[in-house]
Amino acid sequence: MKDGKKIVATIEARMTSTRLPGKVLLPMAGEPNLKRLIDRLRRSKYIDEVVIATTVNVPDDAIVALAEEVGCKVWRGSEDNVLLRVLEAAQSVGADLIVEITGDCPLIDWRHIDRLIALYIEGGYDYMSNILERTFPRGFDVQIFSVKTLAEVNRLTGDPVDQENVSLYIYNHPERYKLGNWAAEGKMRRPELRVTLDTTEDYTLLNAIFEKLLPQNPDFSAEDVVHLLNVEPSLAALNAEVKQKDPYGGYV
């Protein structure tokens, strides 16, 4: 809670990802990926609740079971209209602000989230993120906007690309919405690094990061991750050739 607003982190998660099916439940140092992510989000000083936004498909029953096990709310909605799924998930718990997180970013740092929430509120933004300009490693991605804004977007667009990518319409319309971006500085400015989970190479890297950092500090930071990749460049090389899918179906 900040400035009287209920702040909810939504996690988009499904079992049928195209490049790495079942990735959200793969073990990271012995615990499911999704549980690791939830644990890290719950450290935030401002997030009031975490809700998983999954689909009505039978394979995603496994996600619901995990949510029940860890005491996390879950919302089941459309597989393809992710925008509506996230909106309904946030509305189901009475959210004012949405911290949009995807299930392939288990290394997300609550300190970054809290910084972005503060920037969003203090600056009077409609949208705040650290991805409008890619300066952080891919995998620390955070996007913040209000339920009111996302509900408006849901009314304004029926484009399947917008529906699949949730906030795409917002940042594609800077004339309509006040956009903010937090850029990485110093040693964190490593946009070429990849710590998101889409392929087997990504999994090998992320699991290794958890196994190396968790014993030292269960609340390890994004800075700790980047430092590890700096001192052990062979780790960063594990997924250096992986291409990222863009919102329009291509790879970058």
TrEMBL record:
Question: One cellular component GO annotation, for this chain's record?
Answer: cytosol
Report the PANTHER family cross-referenced here. Answer: 3-DEOXY-MANNO-OCTULOSONATE CYTIDYLYLTRANSFERASE, SPORE COAT POLYSACCHARIDE BIOSYNTHESIS PROTEIN SPSF
Family annotation (InterPro entries): Cytidylyl_trans, Nucleotide-diphossugar_trans
Enumerate the Pfam families for this protein.
Answer: CTP_transf_3 (PF02348)
Report the Gene3D superfamilies cross-referenced here.
Answer: Spore Coat Polysaccharide Biosynthesis Protein SpsA, Chain A
Q: What is this protein called?
A: Spore coat biosynthesis protein F
Taxonomic lineage is: Bacteria, Candidatus Adleribacteriota
* Organism, as annotated: Candidatus Adlerbacteria bacterium RIFCSPLOWO2_01_FULL_54_21b
Q: Which SUPFAM superfamilies match?
A: Nucleotide-diphospho-sugar transferases (SSF53448)
Domain of life according to the entry? Bacteria
Which chain positions lie within coiled-coil regions?
none
